[in-house]
Amino acid sequence: MIRKDKSMKKAKNICCSSDQVKEGVKKHYGNLIKGKKSSCCGPSTMEEGINPAPNRVRGEGRLAQLAGYGEEERSQVPEEAYLSSFGCGNPMAYAEVKPGQVVLDLGSGAGLDVLIASKKVGPNGRVIGLDMTPEMIEKAKENASKAGVKNVEFRLGEMENMPVEDESVDWIISNCVINLSPDKKKVFQESYRVLKPDGRVLVSDIVAKGIPEELKGYLWSSCVGGALDEESYLQTIREAGFEEVQIVDRLDYDRETIRGLLDSGCLD
User: Fold this and answer.
1) Residue of 24, 169, 252, 265 with fewest CB within 10 Å of its CB?
2) Strands 242-243 and 2-4
3) What b/e sequence results for 111-141 when a residue is b if at least 16 CB atoms lie within 10 Å of its CB, and e otherwise?
4) Which comes out higher in pLDDT, residue 51 or 261?
């Protein structure tokens, strides 16, 4: 969890092929939500257009269970929102969101965390879901309609250039999405811009060490290729101007866990 400070530091752009990365990620997750396999960035070893069974793609909600979502969260949302979750944590389990506040979800996907947050902020609050994939926005709107939720909205846009007003948000949450950005410093600079004074960020994300450079392009959409090591990730946040940066929980993905996720189809 991190708190906004009064100052902002300048950061340099990181990536040299950001357009390729973004288009690959957008295509990958657009296909996933439609029940198709796809490649990420670079040559694919999978045939395009294959339609596996939906439960194979979503692992029957196993990824959401591993990330920390239980029966309580599942009962609050349409089944499709839960089954279509590709997160690696449960940020709303730690965010101290209060009634009447404004929450922004970066990479909101099918809307699971947005719908959970909508219960926390109540009728006088508001939740904004931001995602760059049109298919995800469409699915999220469908799920919000099924849930009968009125205090949410979904905006099509990128984390590096958020269509959100300055100092308008109390909380930012994100679930295994910032690792997909080729310019993470820009994401956190934008987060700083849109947060109100004393606003907070609660992020669930992937960190990794020792990924060979020649493999990163193939693994970007699987949340590994773009993952930083833990200290670099924290330093990136600090350089955007945030203070009180801390880790509130960890989940280690060992070989057995990864093998189980692969068998269930969660990491295809």
Assistant:
1) 252
2) antiparallel
3) bbbbbbbbbbbeeebbbbbbbbbebbbebbb
4) 261
